[in-house]
Amino acid sequence: MRELLSPRHVQLGESTEVRRLLPNLGRRMIGAWAFVDHYGPDDIADEPGMQVPPHPHMGLQTVSWLHEGEVLHRDSTGSLQTVRPRELGLMTSGRAISHSEESPKAHARFLHGAQLWVALPEAHRHVEPHFQHHADLPHVTAPGLTATVILGTLDGARSPGTAYTPIIGADIALARGAEARLPLDPDFEYAVLSMSGEAHVDTVPLLPGSMLYLGCGRTELPLRAESDAGLMLLGGEPFEEEIVMWWNFIGRSHEEIEAARTDWMTGTRFGEVKGYDGAPLPAPDMPPVALKPRGRVR
């Protein structure tokens, strides 16, 4: 199976436009990966860059991944961390957290990266919120290829990031002309996001900002680079639970989402992000019809 997923363009915060790959018209999830935004490379030399005010999350993990630039993370547990290229910023919201993301005042010229969410399974979705930062991640190498393991395990290399479902997230750097095959778990479903350059993924040409869904049952991934290229491999066991995903929340019912929105707007449960120069984001209005739990495929 090969299904090319096209992005839709969304404004994030005050000044960043992103290409949203998940959820997509044809597919809601890839394993436990429930949300994928790709942004940049943006020239922010004379701009403030990313400015996302404090906002809430529940029932998910956020994965911040950069190829260029820096993002300053603050959250309601007191975390304050600058995340740099190919470092893992992993926030587990559990029952409730709030955070902000911004480019530091003195920042690099270009900003380029991805923001991803992982849905937490029922058994772990109410864990205590926490943030992890890992600057030293394991690698898988082959001629012309370096794969950085962001989350989960690839070819025996395991990320130090905490995962709550069988999952894989890896950043793949390919040199021009490289041909390689990465081992895959046939029980996982997979997709590949193109970050930069031009590469063929299982013979399909993939350009930046697009994502190729590959399904389950594969034991290897053929790759070939037409230029220096950057890819992200995302996968995991198919997530069988039905979820409700609305705004920044993942829950299991309309009532749960509605209660979370009320808690955010009344200043309870999600804590306070200290140090951000600006007001928190207000929640949008609830839709006029009840939100229904849905599975991973539309």
UniProtKB/TrEMBL annotation:
Matching SUPFAM superfamilies: RmlC-like cupins
GO-annotated molecular function: metal ion binding
Disordered: annotated span: 276-298
Coiled-coil ranges (or none): none
CDD domains found in the cross-reference section: cupin_pirin_C (cd02247)
Cofactor: Fe cation
Occurrences of domain Pirin N-terminal (ranges): 18-118
Amino-acid positions noted as binding Fe cation in the UniProt annotation, renumbered to this chain: H55, H57, H99, E101
Record note on cofactor: Binds 1 Fe cation per subunit.
Keyword vocabulary terms for this entry: Iron, Metal-binding
Residue span, Pirin C-terminal domain: 170-268
Record-stated family: Belongs to the pirin family.
Entry protein name: Pirin
Organism in which the protein naturally occurs: Streptomyces purpureus
